Amino acid sequence: MKKPNGKTDKPKVHPELKGFDIYINELGEVKWSKSIEEVNLFLNKHVVDKKLKERFGYKSDEEDDTIHFMY
Question: What is the average pLDDT value for the chain, to the nearest integer?
Fold first, then answer.
């Protein structure tokens, strides 16, 4: 006898990631409903990189879509 599945509801996500979904197709490939670039822009704006935050010139800002590095 099959076990009943848990919840089938979608998890709560940040409003900027509304509609984001990851799934694996029949060939075993990971597919995304949003482009990798969109996900990276979101992460750059909202997540501080622990390894880079100590570097001079590291900037992670909500208004800015890029991270500036100064080496």
Answer: 76
